[in-house]
Amino acid sequence: MSAYDECYLDSMFQKHRYLFKLIARNCEDAFETITKYMNCDYRYNMDQGNPLFLNKTPKQILGSLGVTVNLSAAISEQYDEFIMEWMADIYTYLQWKYNLLSQDIVNKIQPKELYFKYYPLHETSIENGVEKLVDIYLKQ
To answer: Which of 9, 44, 54, 126 is most buried, by the most CB atoms less than 10 A from its CB?
Structure first.
């Protein structure tokens, strides 16, 4: 059973792609900020399917974490934004499909490790990539 109604899934993909790009552009350690986000109360409420939280904007989410956002910040030189978008899709789909808590996901598949899994997994679909990650990290 999925975490919340499928009607929210596309907007969650879009929101998280933008959120992860904002993190890459505005945070010195993007992986630490993603971990903080995946463990925060906002994300927990999204995991529960709470529409109030599912409809928050990336800027509101980052503000709740104390992250100041410069919307006109340049593209990150440190992080590849295509990989950041892919990571956002992986985390979003994995949480939605398996109805797992984001904090449990990020503790088993840490952002830095997922970032470096892009090259072997990006050529497959998000669904297939998630299945492979579940087999490696979550089936024990």
So the answer is: 54
